[in-house]
Amino acid sequence: MKLRIYTESYNKDLFRAAYFLEKKGKLSIDLISSRFLSNLYSGMKGKKVYSPFKSLTAPIKLLFSKNILLAFAPYSSSIYLMYILKLLGKNIIYHTSWPYWDGTKYVKKPNFVTKKLWESFLNNTKTICSTNKTKKEVERFGALGFHTPHSVDCSLFSPGKKKNHVTVLYVGRMNEEKGVLLLLDAIENVKSKNVKFVFVGRGPLDSLIHDKSKTLPIEHLGFIKDRKEMAEIYARSDVLVSNSYATNDWEELFGIVLIEAMACGLPVISTDCVGPKEIVENNQNGFLIPQKNNKALLEKLNLLIKDKKLRNKYGANSRVLAMKKYSVEKIANDWLEIIKCKSQ
Predict the structure, then answer these.
(1) Does 127 share its domain with 195?
(2) Co-location of 310 and 331 in the same domain
(3) Are 239 and 266 in contact, with CB atoms under 8 Å apart?
(4) For residue 160, is it within any domain?
(5) How far apart are CA 16 and CA 10, in angstroms?
(6) Residue 289's domain is classified under what CATH number?
(7) Are residues 189 and 232 in the same domain?
(8) C-alpha 191: how far from chain center
(9) Could you tell me if 167 and 198 are in contact, meaning their C-beta atoms sit under 8 angstroms apart?
(10) Which of 32, 36, 153, 211 is the most core-located residue (most Cβ within 10 A)?
(11) In 3-state terms, what secondary structure has residue 131?
């Protein structure tokens, strides 16, 4: 069975379950990026990118496709093509993490026609939702919502041998809304001397983190693309911190780094953004803390750094939760059932 994925993102991590099915011979994937101009521009600059020609010819391919997964930001102008594909009777699956279909927030506020087209498109459309909140929201418009979170390969991401010191890990973009500045402030007040803070990722705060590493126990590894190497970094760490906070146009809608860390047996400290608060079980496999609350962040950091028994307990719970709820085998089976089932 062939599945064409048409998306504005080229992040294959969002579609791990589909690629797992392809690896098992149950699905054939053709990922098509819609971003023709950005792909063309990047290619002209010599960067290795998705083929701009393939982006340009995507609508023609989609017209001759049977099974199509669409992954676009809410109220995107791509709705016109999406709606045509639905009218043509294609087996459409929409994939979204957006939890604010009630209009309290917009990525970009739509005009009246675009908004109504989206609402009509969602009606009776199979919709893969990464959180329960998203599922409830799309069902307001009659969508056939399926709570199907992102997944993790629990055989690749698994517990490993720890170092003599406590390693606290941060993985993500190095910018303000990810809570990096607040985390750096907290690090300055951590009591323990037997701790190292490892930052993985890149962004506008790279130079600041580099400067801080001269006086604080910080190691900045930069961006790491290789999944095996990333799994090894998680495995030898002791605690994961995700300190994001919501802004007017952005929020942590899921948190793939959380489930990767959990699969590796790490306790997690996360702010209570819409995605993480459905993943982290407070006082069971880590802590949920209020956003922009450095007092709470510092308190939980000091507690987990100091208490090895608690780290081990929460870490073991994390591993169990990851295997039970987010393993790629489980989520892939859910995807296959959704693709095969018919809209009512």
Answers:
(1) no
(2) no
(3) yes
(4) no
(5) 12
(6) 3.40.50.2000
(7) yes
(8) 32
(9) yes
(10) 32
(11) coil
Say whether both 189 and 100 belong to one domain: no
Tokens 């490993």 appear where?
Answer: 160
> What is the C-alpha separation between 299 and 296, in angstroms, rounded?
5
Residues 202 and 336 both lie in one domain: no
Residues 116 and 30 in one domain: yes
Q: Burial of 249 by CB count in 10 Å (0-12 exposed, 13-18 middle, 19+ buried)?
A: exposed
Residue 156 domain-assigned (yes or no): no
Residues 138 and 185 in one domain: no
Count of domains for the chain: 2
Distances (CA, A) of 106 to 80, 82, 141: 19, 19, 16
What secondary structure letter does DSSP report for 139? Answer: G
Host domain of residue 78: 2-151+327-340
User: How many other C-beta atoms lie within 10 A of the C-beta of residue 300?
Assistant: 21
- Name the token pair of 111: 């005009």
Retrieve residue 245's tokens.
């906070």
Region label for 225, one of left (φ > 0), alpha (ψ between -120 and 50) or beta (otherwise): alpha
Count H helices, E strands: the chain?
Answer: 15, 12
In sign, the C-alpha dihedral spanning 317, 178, 16, 122 is positive
Query: pLDDT tens digit string along 142-187?
Result: 999 999 999 999 999 999 999 999 999 999 999 999 999 999 999 9
**Residue 334 and residue 319 share a domain:** no
Q: What is the dihedral of CA 17, 22, 26, 27, to 10 degrees?
A: 90
Q: pTM here? A: 0.94
